[in-house]
Every structure is written in C-alpha cells, then in structure tokens.
Amino acid sequence: MRRTVEVALGARSYAIEIGSGMDEMLTAFVRGAGYSARGMIVTDTNVGPRYAAHTAEQIARGGVDAAIVTVPAGESSKSLTIANDLYTRAIELRLDRKSPIFAFGGGVVGDLAGFIAATYMRGVPFVQLPTSLLAQVDSSVGGKVAVNHALGKNLIGAFYQPDAVIMDLDRLRTLPAREIATGLGEIIKYGVIADAAFFAWLEEHRDDVLALTPTAASHMIARSCEIKADVVRQDEREGGLRRILNFGHTIAHAIEKETGYTHYRHGEAVAIGMIGAARISTAMGLLPAETCARIEQLIEAMGLPCSVEGASPDAMYDDLFHDKKTVDGRIHWVLAEDIGRVCVRSDVPEEIVRENILGLFTPPVRY
Predict the structure, then answer these.
(1) What is the pLDDT of residues 117-148, one digit of tens each?
(2) Last residue of some domain: 144, 171, 198?
(3) Same domain membership, residue 345 and residue 277
(4) Which of 42, 89, 290, 301 could form a disulfide linkage to 113, CB 3.0–4.6 angstroms apart?
C-alpha cells in the first residue's frame, strides 16, 4: 500500500512517498530530476554495509553515479569535524551545484547530509531516503538540518527542504524493538499536539503498531507526516505554530546532553520529555491529571522509558536555557491543554520546572 503526502511550500514543495519496494520509484525520480551525473550518498556504518550498494545501483539506473560515503553511526557524527570531512569528499568528487546529495540512514545521517547539502556551494540538491522509523516520521520531514555543538544540540544548522522524501517500509523489517520504540516516541507526540483520534488509534492498535504490520506502519507513518507537513506548511521557519512540534523536546535535549547523547535514543528522550511537559501542564492547571496519566500510560505501553538515569537535575535545568526555544532567558514551553491541543507558555515558575525535573528521576533525587 503506497501513500503520498504533499508538503506544500510553494516553489519549495515536495512529495513524501511511502511504501514497500520503492526501487523503481527512486530510479524514476532521479531520472526525471535533471541532476548532474555525479552525486554522493551519505550513510552510516549500520545502514551502509547492508543496503547502500543496492541503493547506489538504483540511483545509477536513473543516471547519477553516486559515491557512497560512510560515517560512524551515532550522534557523534553530527559534528563540524565530520561535516568538514564530507565537504572534502564532495570537493574530491567534483560535485557541482546540480549534484545531488542523498541522505540514506536515520536521523543523524539526514541532519548531517542535509546540512552539507544546504551549505556546500551555497546549496545543492538534497534527497531524503530515511531508513529508521524515527527519521521517517520526524527528521526527514520539514527541512531542519543541523550539526551539534559542544554546548547544545542542533545549534548550527539551516532550514533546507529536500527535493523528495522516499520511504521504503521494507527497510524497517530489520529494526530492533528499541529502534521501533524510539520512533513511536515522536509518533505519540503527533497525537498529543494535533490529533486526539490518532492518539486513540495508537492506544487501540498497540500490538499492530509494535509489530509494524504493513497496514499499521503505513497509516501511522503517513498520518505523522501529514500532521508535520501541515504544520510546516503554515510555519516553515518556526516563527510560531511550528513550535508545537517541540512538545517534549525542551527536556529531551537536556536529557540527551547530560547523558552524552549515548544513553538514550532521541525518541526515548522525547518520551521522557513529554511526560515532564505533561506533568508541568497539569501543575499549571492546563491539563487534567487523568489526561496526563493517559499520555504516560501510552508511552509506557509502547516500551518507552518513563524516567531518567545518569544525569544531574541541576545540570538539566541549566541546559534548558541553551535551548533554541529560550528567548531572553525565558523558556518557551510547549504544554498540553488536552490530547490533540497544545499551547506555548513562557510563564512557568522555576519551582514547577525544578520539581517536575526531579520527578523524572528514579530513584528520586534532591537538589
């Protein structure tokens, strides 16, 4: 079952193609894109050895000889050091302004390859070929590309839309359960911020969701992309509405930083962050306690962590002020008013934030 989601951004519009057995679609897209004869596939040590050669063959059938460049798997590759290595490789390959860069991997690869595409020769064509559930529903859609800095995640980046996003659901078959769960962290978020019926569908179809049955996978990926595409259409550069996509992320980024970007997958950190944000919402009188509990229950039911280990609550609190959503020292929190409806508030008292950060630790800690 194939689905197409349109991201309507005027001259920067593109399609997200979702389905199984997408080789012919990839070849046809490349053939019709008008690219130069040379390109580059950026992949990682997890995905590249298994799939990259086959993908390069499909791209070659479309008329582009794309060199495979493999980076170490993991968040550490989202760095200026690795970016510089990729610039060097692009220059050595004599890539020009019509040479496409393909991101073939998970979210780290997509962010990194997109950052290179946005900045090499002031911008070259970019195609997303996400292979993880997390990347398919989150980072491959919307045009945010970035690398990390020692002081914070995604602080060096750009808004740069791809020419296309092509998702082959067959690539999900080999994902371990933990990688499926981390994608579900972002999928749950879409229900909380924009679609109560979708949230209820996730509750009702938990077993099919965790098994990634074809029908469930196609529906939840397409619906997640539809929600994100609609938000991006209205606010491409995060001037207002797009902030709602950051529900759970303010705390999540602090968790990731304080655990060295290695202890938690991104979607796991987001899951914990959503619990924190939901509890803050309740403490602020915005969200009924029973609705907060419902959010926590679905997160737990999907096999995601609900508490933090290996971090300092003091350091996490300080990290909040390095978040991109913090302006003039005021943290702009995305908080839930109900399932399917959120708001942005910058008046959350420090004591509520500190108390709820503490509440995320097991066993409890004290400042």
Answers:
(1) 999 999 999 999 999 999 999 999 999 999 99
(2) 171
(3) yes
(4) 42
